[in-house]
TrEMBL record:
This is Deoxyguanosinetriphosphate triphosphohydrolase-like protein. It comes from Streptomyces smyrnaeus. It holds the Pfam family HD_assoc. InterPro entries: dGTPase, dGTPase-like, dNTPase_2, HD/PDEase_dom, HD_domain, PHydrolase_assoc_dom. CDD domains: HDc.
Length: 452
C-alpha cells in the first residue's frame, strides 16, 4: 500500500498550509499521515489527524463502550447512593481529555493523541478484564485474545468504514487511520511472548493474522518501542482510571476515606500495591506515596454524599489529574527541552514518586471495590455467560452471528485452517457485545423461549 496523494492545501503533517506562503514546519512526516488504503480528502482544510479523530469518534465500536464494564458493571445499583459509575465509554472520553491536553503541552498533535486515547479500549470485550481472560482461554487454538490486540483488529479490519478494491489485498480495512494514529493507539507493539522485558507477560498488541498491517504501521519504528504519543496515551489512561476509580468507589459508598488512616487497612492496601501495581517498590515507598496525598489540603478525608462533599471530591479528582500530568510534563521537558516532542524523538518521563502515588490509588480501588464479595460472585457468573455463549455459537454458527460475522464465518471455509478461522470469527463477534447484549444472546442460544 502507499500514501494517499497530498494536496496543496496541506503541509506534510496534514496541517493547513499558511495562505500565501510556505506550510508550517512539519512535526510529522508524509509517511506518518499515510493510510493503508489511499483515499482523497472529503473536505479541504481538515488535517489528517482530525479525520482520524472523527472516524474513531463516530465508530460503532466506541458507542458500544457505553455498555461495557469499567470497574462496576453498567446499571449496578449502589447500596448507599447513586454512584453513576463510569463505563468504558466515559473512561475513554475522560482519558482522551487528559491525553489531549498533556500531549498538546508536550508538542504532540492534540488530535492524534486524542484519537489514540479514544481508541485504546475499543477491543475490550463484555465484562471487562474478566471477559478478556475467558476469551483468551477460548481463543487459545487461534492465538488467544487480548483487548489491545483486538483494538488494532477493530481499527484495521472489523469496524466497517473502508474497503480495499485490490484483488490480492485484505478486503476489510476498518476505519483506515493514518500510520501515526495506529502507532499511537498501539500500547503493546509486539506479538504474544515478545514483551521486551517480560516474556511471560500476557500483554501484546497484535495477532498473527494481523501482522501485515502491523508491520506497515510500525515501518521505521524501533522494535518493541512505543512512540511518544502512545506513551502519553498510556500515562493518561493510568491517570484517568486510577483517579476516577477511586472517585467512583468513594461516591458509591464502598470506601470511607478515613479508612486510609487505619494501620491494618493501610497494610492491606500496600499488599495489593506490592503484588499488582508497584511490584518494584521497596520498604515504605507506598506508605510515603499515600501519605503525600493524604497531606494535601484538597484531599477528601470524608464523604457523605452532600453537594459540598461531592464538589470537594470532584476537586480532589481534578487536583490529582493535574498533579500527575504536570509531574510528567515537567520531567519530560527538563530532559528534552521546550520544542515539540513527537513520534520517536523523545520518551515520556514520569517521576517515580508520581508513578507510586498512581499505583497506590489503583490499589485502594482494587482493595475496596474490586475485592468486594458480591463482585466476585458476579464475576463468576459472567465467566459462565461468556464460556457458554462461545460454546453455543461454535456449535450453532452461523446461527446467532450478526450478518457481518456470519459472512466472515462463511469466508473462513476457504482459509488454510477453517476451524481456527471460524473460532476467531466467533471470538470477534463475542468481543463486540455489550454486557447486556452478551447476556441477551446467551439467553437466546442456551435457553430457548427466554430471549427477552
Amino acid at each position: 500500500m502507499h500514501a494517499s496523494p497530498g494536496t496543496p492545501a496541506h503541509g506534510p503533517d496534514g496541517t493547513p498550509a499558511v495562505e500565501g506562503g510556505a506550510p508550517p514546519a512539519p512535526r510529522y512526516t508524509p509517511a506518518d499521515v499515510e493510510r493503508w488504503v489511499p483515499e482523497p480528502d472529503k473536505r479541504p482544510g481538515r488535517t489528517a489527524f482530525q479525520r482520524d479523530r472523527a472516524r474513531v469518534l463516530h465508530s460503532a465500536a466506541l458507542r458500544r463502550l457505553a455498555g461495557k464494564t469499567q470497574m462496576v458493571a453498567p446499571g449496578s445499583a449502589s447500596p448507599a447512593w447513586d454512584a453513576t459509575p463510569r463505563t468504558r465509554l466515559t473512561h475513554s472520553l475522560e482519558c482522551a481529555q487528559v491525553g489531549r491536553e498533556l500531549g498538546a503541552a508536550l508538542g504532540c498533535d492534540p488530535d492524534l493523541v486524542e484519537t489514540a486515547c479514544l481508541a485504546h479500549d475499543l477491543g475490550h470485550p463484555p465484562f471487562g478484564h474478566n471477559g478478556e481472560a475467558v476469551l483468551d482461554e477460548i481463543a487459545a487454538p487461534a492465538g488467544g485474545f487480548e483487548g489491545n490486540a483486538q483494538s488494532l483488529r477493530l481499527l484495521t479490519r472489523l469496524e466497517p468504514k473502508r474497503f480495499s478494491e485490490e484483488p490480492d489485498g485484505q478486503a476489510y480495512v476498518g476505519v483506515n487511520l493514518t500510520r501515526a494514529a495506529l502507532d499511537a493507539a498501539t500500547k503493546y507493539p509486539w506479538r504474544r511472548g515478545e514483551h521486551p522485558t517480560d516474556p511471560d507477560s500476557g500483554k501484546f498488541g497484535v495477532y498473527e493474522e494481523d501482522l501485515p498491517v502491523f508491520h506497515w504501521l510500525r515501518k521505521g519504528a524501533p522494535e518493541g518501542r512505543r512512540c511518544f504519543e502512545a506513551q502519553v496515551m498510556d500515562w493518561s489512561d493510568d491517570v484517568a482510571y486510577s483517579v476516577h476509580d477511586l472517585e467512583d468507589g468513594i461516591r458509591a459508598g464502598h470506601l470511607d476515606p478515613r479508612m486510609l488512616l487505619s494501620g491494618p487497612e493501610r497494610s492491606e492496601v500496600f499488599a495489593v500495591a506490592a503484588e499488582r501495581y508497584a511490584p518494584g517498590a521497596v520498604d515504605d515507598e507506598p506508605a510515603a506515596a499515600l501519605d503525600r496525598l493524604l497531606a494535601q489540603e484538597w484531599w477528601p478525608h470524608g464523604y457523605d454524599g452532600t453537594a459540598r462533599d461531592q464538589a470537594r471530591l470532584k476537586d480532589a479528582s481534578s487536583q490529582l489529574i493535574g498533579r500527575f500530568c504536570l509531574a510528567a510534563e515537567a520531567a519530560t521537558r527538563s530532559a528534552y527541552g521546550s520544542g515539540p516532542l513527537t513520534r520517536y524523538a523523545a520518551e515520556l518521563i514520569v517521576p517515580e514518586a508520581a508513578r507510586l502515588e498512581c499505583a497506590v490509588l489503583k490499589a485502594v480501588a482494587d482493595r475496596y471495590v474490586m475485592q468486594r464479595p458480591d463482585l466476585e460472585r458476579l464475576r463468576r457468573e459472567q465467566r459462565v455467560v461468556v464460556r457458554e455463549l462461545a460454546e453455543a455459537l461454535l456449535a450453532r454458527a452461523p446461527e446467532g452471528l450478526d450478518p457481518q460475522y456470519a459472512d466472515l464465518y462463511a469466508e473462513a471455509a476457504g482459509s488454510a485452517e477453517p476451524a481456527v478461522a471460524r473460532l476467531r470469527v466467533v471470538v470477534d463477534q463475542i468481543s463486540t457485545l455489550t454486557d447486556a447484549a452478551a447476556r441477551s444472546l446467551h439467553r437466546t442460544l442456551t435457553m430457548p423461549g427466554r430471549s427477552g
